Amino acid sequence: MGEDLEDLYENAPCGYVSLGPDGLIVKSNLTLSNWIGISQADLLGKRLREILNIAGAIFYETHIAPLLRMQGFFNEVALDLITAKGKKFPVLANAVERRREDGTLLFTRLTIMQAADRRRYERELVEARATAQRGFELERKGSERLEQFIAVLGHDLRNPLAGVDAGLRRLERFGWTEDTPMLIAMMQRSTARMKVLIGDVLDLAQTRLGGGLQVKIESGRPLVPTLSQVVGELRLAYPDRVIEERYEISGSVDCDKGELRSCSPILSATL
């Protein structure tokens, strides 16, 4: 028994639409009617744009129809049909014109295929790409912050190291003097501050591994000794410069004294 061509047309796995030379629907199959809930009889005489959403109708009239007239076909154009219940029905459409030998248009045939799954897949791809791009931007910004931290850390370590180096050179040059105990105490404080800065590197590593940044807030302790230590290191590092101290701090400041010592780059930048 041969294939029933009428049934093949009406119940094909895709929608069929034929447009007359005036652009009106002259024939459609049952598959399309079942998809959008509009009978074949009601589709007769309509223009294709009447069953498209507003954006699709504008796009069809301004881009697709001129392209069809220019080259006689179009392939895999994404459109949204509107069902009888007013819902969008995503499709992909292909079209080809049939003309007489003299070029007169006879009709235009369209095949329409469901594209809901494809559209969803495409959206997921776009979202995945956007997520990956955001991750890349976060990683890039994180790398920039890390480079900035390393640069500041290098500057911070330079000052206490310069103080220790200057103290050792002074001891080597002058030997033990009445200022030596003060000098050794200053060098010890500088060494302790370098340990704190190295601890900051470990804190950063812990933060990047998800452990959080530890801040040690101290209360009830004066701030002047902390700042004075930084100035003392600078005096050792720059013995030929005159460095004056002046503090106007009333009461104690609740803060992380170790982190405040990072003000040394600001001071040394002015020397």
Structural description of this entry:
With 271 residues, the protein is an alpha+beta fold. The chain folds into two domains: 5-114, 2-Layer Sandwich (Beta-Lactamase), CATH 3.30.450.20; 145-268, no CATH class. It contains nine helices and five strands, in the order αββαααβββααααα. It has helices at residues 5-10, 30-36, 40-43, 54-71, 116-174, 180-208, 224-237, 257-260, 264-268; strands at residues 15-19, 25-28, 73-82, 88-99, 105-114. The chain has a five-stranded antiparallel beta sheet with strand order 2-1-5-4-3, with helices on both faces. Helix 5 (116-174) runs antiparallel to helix 6 (180-208) and helix 5 (116-174) crosses helix 7. The longest helix has 59 residues, at 116-174. The protein is rod-shaped and about 115 Å long. The relative contact order is 0.08. The model is unreliable at 265-271 (pLDDT under 50).
Question: Can you describe this structure in just a few lines?
Answer:
The protein is an alpha+beta fold.
Please supply descriptive tags for the structure shown above.
9 helices; single chain; 2 domains; rod-shaped; 5-stranded antiparallel sheet; Beta-Lactamase; alpha+beta; disordered C terminus; 271 residues
